[in-house]
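Bug #77: duplicate submission created two jobs. Keeping one. Sequence:
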Amino acid sequence: MRVSRVVTATVTAALTVTGLTVGGADAARRDGDVARAFSSVDRTTAWTLTARIPLRFPTYHPQGFALVGDKIFLSSVEVLEPPVRYPEPVDGYDRSPGRGIGHVLVLDRNGKLLADVKVGEGTVYHPGGIDFDGRDVWVPVAEYRPNSHAIVYRLDPRTLRVTEEFRVRDHIGGITRDRGDGSLHGVSWGSRRFYEWTGTGYQQRVSANPSHLVDYQDCDYVDRRKQLCSGVTGLPTASGGSYELGGLALLDLTDGNRILHEIPFQQFSAAGHVATRNPVALERDGSTLRLFAAPDDGEEPAGTELLVYEAEVPR
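Kept job's structure:
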């Protein structure tokens, strides 16, 4: 059942969206270019760090990116009280809900903060990976624990008006909208389950993720009928330490999220995190495939930096 509810947005600056494409052939052609460019890269591709932009405002724990014209929408969770694991499950949960505030931060490509939109309610305060469908930014906000609850919001990038669309009885950590048929696709905690809903929030299917290489953290739609997902897996080292394996995968939305192409991405941040740890977005500019990432949290030594990597791809 769809529930539409307008949520008050806290805005720190007026926002004018320029270069905004609303659906149509231009958007399809751009997204098609990204899918084709990504399909041409592999683990031998040379990625060059072309920009390291410090974000000089509170960024908390970044989660997802959406490129909207010349603006970047960044979802993030401000944790006020971390969840605490229970000695044994309580009411089906393995940990307490904690407390926090969900944010969608709007910035320009120079890293300047333009607006701060608060999302969520009560124990539902953890935004996940977000997606821009050519008209609206889709934002899932969940409890900060697995097998819990989530609210899916639609955010108008021009007015910053936030509307609740539907609710889900699970933690939804990322969402994508298929521009072909209007369906919505989500991933659960650690992306262990794939969800598909109609545009009005009716659940059509849920299936297990057949891949266990990385946990998808942020996904974006790429034409035609595909999504490009990024993520991370923590692995142990021989000496007893830990290691972050990062990667990206192109998934077919029409065929059960079958993997069409995937690559590891082992570029690291100032804090030592793999670049695909959380927010990632890609765009193509001629023969350049550009990747935006913000893997570090605001409280880490260098704070959050917007990292920009570029690779050369066939025209």
